[in-house]
Write a structure and sequence with these properties.
Residues 70-171 form the DUF6286 domain. InterPro entries: DUF6286. The protein is an alpha+beta fold and 182 residues long. The chain folds into 2 domains: 2-81, no CATH class; 98-173, Cation efflux protein, cytoplasmic domain (Alpha-Beta Plaits, 2-Layer Sandwich), CATH 3.30.70. It has helices spanning 2-32, 44-52, 59-81, 102-114, 141-158, and strands spanning 87-89, 98-100, 119-126, 130-137, 166-173. The strands form 2 sheets. It has a 3-stranded mixed beta sheet with strand order 3-4-5. A two-stranded antiparallel sheet has the order 1-2. A hairpin with a 3-residue loop joins strand 3 (119-126) and strand 4 (130-137). Helix 4 (102-114) packs across helix 5 (141-158). 14% of the residues are buried.
Length: 182
C-alpha cells in the first residue's frame, strides 16, 4: 500500500497544481478583458449556463456524487492502510517510545535460524503480531522444526519486545538433486 500511496500522492498533487495554474490563467485573462467568448482554455460561461439549468436530482449529478464518494473512500482507505506497521519494543524510560521495522526483526530471526545445524536455508516473514519461519534442512522434519523453533524463540526472548509475536515454524527436508543439495 505504501508504494501505491507514493505513486498516487505526486499524481494527485500534479493534478491539483495543474487545476490551480489553469484557474490563475483564466482569471488573469478575464481581468485583462482579452477574451470575449466563453473563456481562454475552458468554456466557463457555457458550463455556468448548463449548471444553472441542471437540477440536483438529475441523473448526471447523482452519478458524479456517487463517483466522488467512491473515490474519496478509496483514497481514505489507501491512506489508512499505508501506515507503518512497526514492532514496538519496551520503553527504556517514561515518555520514550522505541520501535523497529518488521524487516529488521525478520532479518535477526532469519540469521539465527540459518545458523542452526539442522537448517540449510530459511525464509522469515515478521510483523508486530506474528513471525513465520519456513526452514529447509538436513534430517527429518521434526528435527528441523525443533532446531528452527529453538533458534527463533531465542531471538524473540532476547529482544525487549513490548508484546511477543506468535511464532509459526514450517519445516521441510532438503530434496536430493535440488540446487545446493548433494
Amino acid at each position: 500500500m505504501r508504494v501505491l500511496l507514493r505513486v498516487l500522492a505526486p499524481l494527485v498533487s500534479l493534478g491539483v497544481a495543474a487545476l490551480g495554474v489553469l484557474l490563475v490563467v483564466e482569471v488573469v485573462v478575464a481581468w485583462a478583458g482579452r477574451v470575449s467568448g466563453a473563456g481562454l482554455l475552458v468554456p466557463w460561461r457555457d458550463w455556468r449556463t448548463t449548471l444553472q439549468n441542471t437540477l440536483w436530482t438529475a441523473q448526471p449529478v447523482l452519478w458524479i456524487a456517487v463517483a466522488g464518494i467512491v473515490a474519496g473512500a478509496l483514497l481514505l482507505a489507501i491512506g489508512l492502510l499505508a501506515r507503518r506497521h512497526d514492532v514496538a519494543l519496551d520503553s527504556p524510560s517514561p515518555g520514550l517510545s522505541v520501535s523497529t521495522a518488521p524487516r529488521v526483526l525478520a532479518r535477526l530471526v532469519g540469521t539465527r535460524v540459518r545458523a542452526a545445524d539442522a537448517v540449510s536455508a530459511a525464509s522469515v516473514t515478521a510483523s508486530a503480531g506474528s513471525v513465520v519461519v519456513r526452514a529447509r534442512g538436513r534430517g527429518d522434519t521434526a528435527e528441523i522444526r525443533d532446531s528452527a523453533r529453538a533458534a527463533a524463540s531465542g531471538v524473540l526472548d532476547a529482544l525487549p519486545l513490548a508484546r511477543r509475536p506468535r511464532l509459526t515454524v514450517r519445516a521441510t527436508p532438503d530434496q536430493p538433486g535440488a540446487k545446493g543439495v548433494q
